[in-house]
Amino acid sequence: MMLVTQLPMPATLLLSIVIAAVLVYAPFMVVGLARFQMGYDMSAPRKMTDKMPPYAQRANWAHQNSFESLILFAPAALMAYVTGQDSIVALGAVLAYLIARLLYSIFYIADIPILRSAMFAVGSLGIYTLFFLSCRTALALG
């Protein structure tokens, strides 16, 4: 995360999308490990989900939710990029989102629902902060 804070804000916003995309697959590594331990069924890999241990099922759900979150974060970061957001608030929103998404997956896999939910809220706040800042700037320019 140190690299993100040392870059110019436009680069930070774009790099954050790449990092968020990578974070989508972090929980899937746990799913892959469980599939490998079970004996991977190449003909029906999705049928294996119901047979996986509970931690691996939660990892799969965290992976799926990460896609849903990325669908909102990417346009928020792109809007911030286009509208020239370079405030400490925008940087804080980006960092909060990335850290929250990493911790979200960890807490989901570890089955700590209250912390998972808190990280979901923090990540969502980061997204909607970027949307708010961008819309405020765009409306002021119009």
Structure description:
This protein is 81% helix and 0% strand. With 142 residues, the protein is an all-alpha fold. The protein has a single domain, classed as Up-down Bundle (Four Helix Bundle (Hemerythrin (Met), subunit A)). The longest helix has 30 residues, at 9-38. It starts with a helix and ends with a helix.
Derived from helix and strand composition plus strand pairing, the structural class reads mainly alpha
CATH superfamily: Membrane associated eicosanoid/glutathione metabolism-like domain
Largest sheet: none
Reading the helices and strands in chain order gives HHHHH
CATH topology: Four Helix Bundle (Hemerythrin (Met), subunit A)
Number of domains: 1
Mean pLDDT: 91
Q: Which range best describes the helical content: under 10%, 10-25%, 25-40%, 40-55%, 55-70% or over 70%?
A: over 70%
| Proper CATH architecture | Up-down Bundle
* Separate helix tally: 5
Proportion of residues in β-strands: under 5%
Round the Cα radius of gyration to an integer and report it. Answer: 17 Å
- CATH class reads Mainly Alpha
Low-confidence stretches at least 5 residues in length (pLDDT < 50)?
A: none
| End-to-end Cα distance | 35 Å
Strands, total number: 0
Q: Assign an overall shape.
A: elongated
Short description:
It is built from five helices and no strands.
